[in-house]
């Protein structure tokens, strides 16, 4: 799903895209947009994702004006991506793009297209800001 988001974002000229699997809270300040892929496990966000957002909030640095979006897969329920968006908005004051992209089990072609569209939508939004 993340690779599809990147593909969509890279389709917009002039946008720099970086795919990271490991970031620190301080790294979040370096980006104009943050898209988090979070699977749902037992109806919640995996603790590493929650800790990342909480740690960023603890730095007392606002990410206000930066764009936040989420996507993820699930088996039984799919709350995690929306929970991520709620945290990005409430804890980090980010501008949220909704709805999150969800895929039940493994993403199918439709979900991957939605991911590409999400990446492109964010990139176009950033392109208009510069």
What does this structure look like?
This protein is of the alpha/beta class and 130 residues long. It has a single domain (2-121), classed as Rossmann fold. Helix content is 42%, strand content 15%. The chain has helices at residues 2-10, 47-58, 80-92, 109-129, and strands spanning 33-37, 67-74, 95-96, 101-104. Strands 1, 2, 3 and 4 form a four-stranded parallel beta sheet that branches. The radius of gyration is 14 Å and the shape is globular.
Can you identify the CATH class? Alpha Beta
Strand content: 5-15%
| Number of H- or I-type helical stretches | 4
User: What is the total tally of β strands?
Assistant: 4
Reported for the largest beta sheet, the result is: 4 strands, parallel
The value of Rg in angstroms is: 14 Å
Pattern of helices and strands? HEHEHEEH
Determine the N-to-C terminus distance.
27 Å
CATH architecture descriptor? 3-Layer(aba) Sandwich
Spans where pLDDT lies below 50 across 5 or more residues: none
Protein topology:
Blueprint: H1 2-10, E1 33-37, H2 47-58, E2 67-74, H3 80-92, E3 95-96, E4 101-104, H4 109-129
Parallel strand pairs: 1-2, 2-3, 2-4
Helix pairs in contact: 1-4, 2-3
Core attributes:
130 residues; four-stranded parallel beta sheet; 42% helix; alpha/beta
Quick structural summary:
The chain is α/β, with parallel strands linked by helices and 130 residues long.
């Amino acid at each position: 799903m993340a690779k599809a988001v990147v593909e969509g974002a890279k389709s917009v000229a002039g946008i720099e895209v970086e795919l990271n699997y490991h970031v620190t809270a301080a790294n979040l300040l370096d980006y104009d947009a943050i898209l988090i892929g979070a699977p749902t496990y037992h109806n919640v966000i995996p603790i590493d994702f929650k800790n990342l957002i909480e740690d960023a909030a603890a730095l007392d640095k606002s990410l206000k004006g930066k764009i936040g979006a989420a996507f993820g897969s699930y088996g039984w329920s799919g709350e995690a991506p929306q929970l991520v968006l709620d945290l990005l908005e409430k804890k980090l004051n980010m501008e949220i793009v909704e709805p999150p992209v969800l895929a039940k089990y493994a993403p199918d072609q439709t979900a991957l297209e939605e991911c590409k569209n999400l990446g492109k939508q964010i990139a176009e939004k950033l392109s208009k800001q510069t």
